[in-house]
Design a protein that fits this description.
This protein has two domains: 57 residues; 89 residues, no CATH class. Helix content is 48%, strand content 14%. It contains three helices and eight strands. The structure holds zinc ion (ZN).
């Protein structure tokens, strides 16, 4: 008699435990799933804003002249706060972001010169006045004079 009474108790307890396990598993999966969805949503929302805003808000306006030491003169890219190297064994002070760019500036004379977009003159990047390109590409423009820089900015404004 006693044994018969015990058996159903045990089975109902087992059922309860199984049901609890199932509930916990479901909850765990749901919360993990929700977290994953949240992470994906956050990544989707934050990724473009990082590129379009945080990144470019740091950049100076094109009407401001920037220090030549902030430009990699091989790729003509504005390097913002990144440390630049002075390229040795050249006539003027040229800056490069990497050894590859240093070598490129040393070996390729064309990389050391730029065309002033206003006067169309070929000028040395080492002595040029530099501003960020108004197209916000992160590239820079080189000018032979401050006047040409101002004229360029006026031309570029719609
Ligand atoms: Zn570089």
């Amino acid at each position: 008699m006693n044994k018969q009474k015990v058996k159903p108790k045990a089975s109902t307890q087992k059922k309860k435990v199984k049901w609890q396990e199932w509930t916990i598993t479901t909850l765990a999966f749901t919360s993990v799933g929700a977290t994953l969805i949240w992470i994906v949503m956050m990544a989707h929302n934050s990724a473009p804003s990082l590129d379009d805003h945080t990144h470019r808000n740091d950049f100076p306006e094109p009407n401001v002249l920037i220090a030549s030491s902030k430009v990699c003169m091989s790729t003509d890219a504005f390097m913002n706060g990144n440390t630049q190297m002075v390229v040795p064994n050249l006539g003027g002070t040229y800056y490069a972001c990497s050894h590859q760019c240093t070598t490129a500036l040393q070996s390729n004379e064309a990389e050391r010169y730029a065309i002033d977009p206003v006067s169309k003159k070929r000028i040395s990047k080492a002595t040029a006045f530099i501003c960020l390109h108004p197209d916000k590409s992160g590239k820079v423009c080189y000018f032979e004079s401050k006047e040409n820089h101002l004229a360029f900015i006026k031309l570029y404004r719609p």
